[in-house]
Design brief:
single chain, mainly alpha, about 45% helix, elongated, about 0% strand
Amino acid sequence: MLEDASRQPAGRIGLFNTPAALTETVERKSIELGRLAELDSYNAYRRLCKFPEVTSFDQISGDGRVQDALKDHYKTVDRIEYYTGIFAEDTRPNSALPSLIGRLVGVDAFSQALTNPLLAANIYNDLTFTPAGLEIIETTETLSDLLHRNLPAGSRRFEVSMDRAVTSHRPRAAAAL
């Protein structure tokens, strides 16, 4: 299941990938909450994250449908709202995330990781973990490693990744499962 989730377009982050029922109940509410909270514009968040402001719709997405929808609704790139903009961006090569979301997730992840008590020298040491536990932690490098550590010995290898370079975006044939 994890391997297939890594490969299918249903996990693609972007516009036109949400069922209509969720668009009305979830997406619209998120935009309304952003307005209520007076979130800054998409371009303002780009500046905050040290990205250049976009000046045209094709700088956000190469997808004509996305460009047309943004033009129809916002008229100018300076009016694009944060929530819409972050999901309108094309994903980066070899990534599951667009640039701005990737930067925001990265900042959050690293700021949390670097302050995580588990990484403190007085906690992350051989007095806290067994030799086997430390070896497991230090040899786990991928999501696939984490998955396989929890499967019975001898199970077939699954490819689980958030790196789009290793995903085909095509469901595998049932016989291959």
